[in-house]
Amino acid sequence: MTVKLYSQVVDEFLAKKMDDSVLDKFYRVTQPLYTTQLYIPIMDAKEAPKAFSVEKTVSPAMWLIHYKGQAVPPETGRFRFIGYADDWLAVAVNGKIALVAARQDVKLIQTRWESPEKAGMRVGNGNLKVGDWIDFKNGIPFDIDVVIGERPGGKFGAFLMIQKEGGVYEMTPDGQFPILPIFQVAPRKVKATNTNAGPPFSANASVWIALP
Predict the structure, then answer these.
(1) What residues form DSSP beta bridges with 102?
(2) Facing residues of 141 across strands?
(3) Per-residue burial over 164-183, b = 16 or more CB atoms within 10 Å of its CB, e = otherwise
(4) How confident is the model at residue 39 (pLDDT cuts 50, 70, 90)?
(5) 44-81 b/e with 16+ CB inside 10 Å = b?
(6) Backbone angles phi, psi at 3, to 5 degrees
(7) Distance from first CA to last CA of the chain, Å, rounded?
(8) Cα 181–183–186 angle (5° rounding)?
(9) What is the structure's pLDDT at 97?
(10) Is the pLDDT assigned to residue 193 strictly greater than 70?
(11) CA-based nearest residue to 186, from 160, 205, 161, 167
(12) Exposed site from 115, 120, 164, 170, fewest CB < 10 Å?
C-alpha cells in the first residue's frame, strides 16, 4: 500500500463515521488492547506493532488503531477535545467527528472537518488542534471513538487533552495557551515530559469513567 492509498482509506473511514467495514479487506490484529488515555511521547513507530505483539508480521508503517467504547462525564458542562498526533488522530462522540488532529501534509478531502480555532501550542513537528464544543451531562453515558495512525513509519506520538468551557487553567510561561489535563477514563499517573516529546499537562484532572 502506498502512502497516498493509505490516506484515501483513512479519509473514507472517517467520512463514513469510523465504520470498521471500510477496513474489512485489510489485516487486523485479533487480540484487543485497551487504554485509559492517549499521551504517547514522540517515539519510534515500531513500538505500536510491539504493543500488539505483531512486530514480526506488521511493519511500523501504514497502521491504524481504533479505540471505542462508552464513557460517563464527571460533571455537566461544555467540553472540547484538544490534541495532536504524528501522523494523525481523530475523535468522534456519539458518531459525530469532534476532532481531527494531524500533520499538515495529511490530506483528508471527504472528511470535511475543520478546527474552529487557530493552531494551539507547538508539539513535536505540529501543533495541538482544537475540537468542537460538546454538551455533556453528568451520569449520562456517551459513545466515543478515538483513532490514531501512522503512514510512513519513523517517529510517532499522540496526545489527547480535554478542556471545560469556563474552566480556569494554568497558562504556559508565554501566557498564550492553557495547560490542560489529559483525557482519562480511569485514574492514571503520568510522568511529565519535556516539550520536545509532548505537551505540558495539568495533574488536576477529573476522570471520565469508562463503562465495561
Answers:
(1) 88
(2) none
(3) beebeeeeeeeeebbbbbbb
(4) very high
(5) ebbebbeebebeeebebbbbbbebeeebbbbeebebbb
(6) -60, -40
(7) 35
(8) 110
(9) 97
(10) no
(11) 205
(12) 170
The per-residue pLDDT for range 119-138, each reduced to its tens digit, is: 889 988 889 999 999 999 99
pLDDT of 32 reads 85
Q: Quick one: average pLDDT of 152-159?
A: 91
Give the amino acid at 95. Answer: G
Q: What is the pLDDT of residue 207?
A: 92
Q: What is the pTM of this model?
A: 0.93
Average pLDDT over residues 183-207: 81
Q: Which grid cell is 72?
A: 460517563
Write the CA distances from 2 to 5, 15, 159, 189, integer angstroms.
Answer: 5, 20, 26, 38
How many CB atoms are closer than 10 A to CB 212?
A: 4
**67: Cβ–Cβ under 8 A, 6 or more apart, which residues?**
34, 35, 145, 146, 147
CATH for 3-28+39-210, among 2.60.120.380, 3.40.50.10330, 2.40.10.10, 3.40.50.300?
A: 2.60.120.380
Q: Where are the domains of the chain?
A: 3-28+39-210
Q: Which three cell numbers mark 142? A: 456517551
How high is the pLDDT of residue 3? Answer: 85
Q: In angstroms, what CA-CA distances link 193 with 41, 59, 163, 198?
A: 8, 27, 20, 6
Q: CA-to-CA distance for 134 and 94, rounded, in angstroms? A: 11
